[in-house]
Design goal:
By secondary structure, this protein is mainly α. It has a single domain (3-214, 225-232), classed as Serine Threonine Protein Phosphatase 5, Tetratricopeptide repeat, CATH 1.25.40. The chain has helices at residues 3-20, 26-51, 55-61, 63-80, 85-105, 110-131, 142-166, 174-197, 227-237; strands at residues 136-137, 140-141. Strand 1 (136-137) and strand 2 (140-141) form a beta hairpin. Helix 4 runs antiparallel to helix 5 and helix 5 packs antiparallel against helix 6 (110-131).
């Protein structure tokens, strides 16, 4: 993934996570998704047109399309209330590719192996939420967990990594890889804890805001259950 695009992906994941938690209305997140998605598609295309014959450039560039299409699709999904199942199954494909890259990177760049693994988890959560329509597992709010996971891990895995890469301060040492893994586990545990605590959020939103907008806070009708409970029928009945 290009470093410039990677720099921007952190903020779009942060905003999408905040939208999932109800801090940011879903429709207000759409422009950022469309902008970052366009950057993730246009810049790699320019690079490939100029240097596409170089296998190293090709291998370093094509993954950007996976994430660029994600944000473009999501932005359009919010604006036009497109059914979320297609996006969910596409996310499963992206998660599989990210997992594959995580395995390939273990021996050469353990830090990016952890980062790819983190992205694989993120897109797997999108698949479960939007492809399968599962927002609860044994009473655990997957949608809310996804929101916290994006908030805590989006910027570190994307924006912070891009800054180090752009400043040529990246390290591939095993120690750095272990530190990255420890950070992933700690922030995952924090996300689980915050999900179980049930910190305040706007009533109109849930992690299902990764799906098309279910209404602004002013449009929400009180007394219709939790946001996750309102989202699940929308996912399942639109199949």
């Amino acid at each position: 993934m290009g470093n410039v695009g990677l720099l921007l992906v952190g903020v779009v994941l942060l905003v999408n996570g905040l939208s999932s938690l109800g801090v940011v209305p879903a429709r207000s997140a759409a422009p950022l998704n469309l902008f970052v998605g366009a950057v993730q598609v246009v810049l790699p295309t320019i690079i490939l047109v100029q240097h596409g014959s170089d296998p190293a450039v090709l291998n370093a560039t094509w993954p950007s399309y996976l994430f660029g299409f994600t944000y473009l699709w999501f932005g359009l999904q919010i604006l036009y209330s497109i059914e979320p199942q297609g996006f969910g199954w596409y996310s499963a494909f992206v998660a599989a590719i990210a997992g594959y890259h995580a395995v390939l990177s273990i021996g050469t760049d353990p830090v990016f192996a952890v980062i790819w693994a983190t992205w694989a988890v993120m897109w797997s959560l999108f698949f479960v939420l939007l492809g399968l329509g599962r927002t609860q597992v044994a009473g655990f709010d997957l949608g809310r967990f996804t929101g916290w996971f994006l908030v805590w891990l989006g910027v570190p895995t994307c924006t912070v990594s891009a800054l180090f890469l752009l400043q040529d301060r990246w390290t591939t040492s095993p120690t750095a890889g272990l530190a990255a893994l420890a950070g992933l586990l700690a922030l995952t545990a924090l996300s689980v804890a915050l999900t179980r605590v049930g910190a305040p959020r706007l009533e109109a939103a849930s992690a299902g805001q990764l799906a098309p907008d279910q209404g602004t806070p002013d449009e929400a009708t009180p007394g219709q259950g939790t946001p996750a409970e309102r989202l699940e029928p929308a996912l399942t009945t639109s199949a």
